[in-house]
């Protein structure tokens, strides 16, 4: 049924039960640095002002350097955030959607105490033209707060497939309220097909198995983000959190040039007590393999999503309703394969 069967011992010792948000391994650090929440386009938005005003910018693609350039010129008549002081401290932020994970955000400097900021800055993306044309540009304006309570001031979203690339002039665009596309559907990263099973200790005979086992069968992934014309070279990483040690880490082989890779890879973690299932979380992440660095494409977290692990508040115990239901079904059906089809998301 699978091309690889990996078996890893998973022991929850005392020191494993006190993880902190900053205790991730280097792999986990790279996940957090390139992604963020599903709504990372609007992360840190604490404001309630209405969008108003305009923004002037120009778009260009440098064929020689294979670089997408956003020339942000200025804004006019932005909303006032601090009405008592009559001030806003605006900056401009851009994303290429849906590929936030790979490309990240770009932003201008902050201009203080003005609703008519002048930037004259160029935000640059190294990206192939063919890949760029399947993206959307999300350009948004924000008020910068020293405490991180930034306020959304407006945005514009451009479908780059239909953009007139002969137009390199600066043009004015009205800022609009939030686009629903950034909340619904734009973050679609693909769907993973998998099965999981829990085998309680002694359930197959006397002392067989000697400890509980969680079996994870990664079957395939469909509709991955296409990062280059030839497709994507993908693989799956697996951890059982809170353990981020090398003992917990497993990965599949790399499937090249395929946005619908078939992995057919099974992993077995032993050392489980039944009560551990309430506090553990299986994290499966999909990555694009490149020589210098791997790029995060999306992932799932299977657990109860309580926000707690062994009484400690952790940011990774954040399973969605679908992921929680999948994990609960496994807990209730010992020794049975539970099949699932779960959407990948930012983590």
From TrEMBL:
Pfam families: C2 (PF00168). It comes from the Eukaryota. Keywords: Cell membrane, Exocytosis, Membrane, Repeat. The gene is Sytl2_1. It is found in: Cell membrane. Residues 51-173, 188-317 form the C2 domain. Residues 1-12 have a biased composition (Polar residues). The keyword Repeat applies. This is Synaptotagmin-like protein 2. Its main location: membrane. GO terms for molecular function: neurexin family protein binding. Residues 1-27 are annotated as: Disordered. GO terms for biological process: exocytosis. InterPro entries: C2_dom, C2_domain_sf, SYTL1-5_C2B. GO terms for cellular component: exocytic vesicle; plasma membrane.
């Amino acid at each position: 049924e699978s091309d690889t069967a990996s078996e890893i011992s998973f022991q929850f010792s005392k020191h494993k039960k006190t993880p902190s948000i900053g205790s991730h391994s280097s792999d986990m650090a790279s996940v957090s640095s390139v992604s963020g929440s599903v709504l990372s386009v609007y992360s840190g938005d604490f404001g309630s002002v209405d969008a108003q005003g305009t923004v002037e910018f120009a778009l260009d693609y440098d064929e020689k350097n294979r670089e997408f350039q956003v020339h942000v010129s200025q804004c006019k008549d932005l909303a006032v955030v601090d009405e008592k002081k009559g001030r806003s401290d605006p900056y401009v932020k851009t994303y290429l959607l849906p590929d936030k994970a790979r490309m990240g955000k770009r932003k201008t400097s902050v201009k203080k105490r003005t609703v008519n900021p002048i930037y004259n800055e160029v935000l640059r993306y190294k990206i192939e033209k063919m890949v760029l044309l399947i993206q959307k540009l999300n350009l948004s304006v924000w008020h910068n707060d020293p405490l991180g309570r930034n306020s959304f001031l407006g945005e514009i979203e451009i479908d780059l497939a239909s953009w007139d690339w002969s137009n390199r002039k600066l043009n004015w665009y009205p800022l609009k309220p939030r686009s629903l596309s950034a909340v619904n559907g734009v973050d679609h990263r693909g769907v993973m097909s998998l099965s999981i099973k829990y085998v309680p200790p002694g359930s197959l005979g006397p002392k067989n198995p000697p400890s509980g086992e969680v079996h994870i069968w990664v079957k395939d992934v469909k509709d991955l983000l296409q990062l280059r014309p030839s497709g994507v070279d993908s693989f799956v990483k697996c951890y059982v959190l809170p353990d981020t040690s090398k003992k917990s880490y497993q990965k599949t082989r790399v499937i090249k040039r395929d946005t619908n890779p078939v992995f057919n890879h099974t992993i077995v973690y032993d050392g489980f007590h039944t009560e551990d299932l309430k506090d553990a979380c299986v994290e499966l992440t999909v990555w694009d393999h490149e020589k210098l660095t791997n790029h995060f494409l999306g992932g799932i977290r299977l657990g109860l999503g309580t926000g707690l692990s062994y009484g400690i508040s952790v940011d990774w115990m954040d399973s969605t309703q679908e992921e929680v239901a999948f994990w609960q079904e496994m807990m209730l059906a010992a020794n049975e394969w539970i099949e699932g089809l779960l959407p990948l998301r930012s983590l």
